[in-house]
């Protein structure tokens, strides 16, 4: 079976035609579209705003399911403790063995000046557990 051709290779994100086609209708966004948007925000739209950090779905997922000791090493170059606002892509996939699982994306933000997490969710109640778990882990890492 022939592999679908690449549509866009953008920094750490690879999009195929089927990913981009999701934007042409009333479809759910997939992991790759969310990853692209966060990458775009970080490296282009807000590149000069060093106080902001956009933590995409893969990194947020790694925070939720990865080893705490390894996370500190992974996050160190990102200088998260110096950021004023961190925006996390939050997914409700509870199974680390299924990389593209889950059924809903939401946003979790951390504001440094008042040490506050806020959860923005278009489907009330969904992702609540994942967002709370992510906030708890991020709070430990951020101090």
UniProtKB/TrEMBL annotation:
Domain of life, per the record? Eukaryota
Keywords, sorted A to Z: Hydrolase, Protease, Thiol protease
* SUPFAM superfamilies membership: Cysteine proteinases
InterPro entries associated with the record? Nep1/2-like, Papain-like_cys_pep_sf
Protein name from the UniProt record: Cysteine proteinase
Q: Which organism is it from?
A: Coccomyxa subellipsoidea
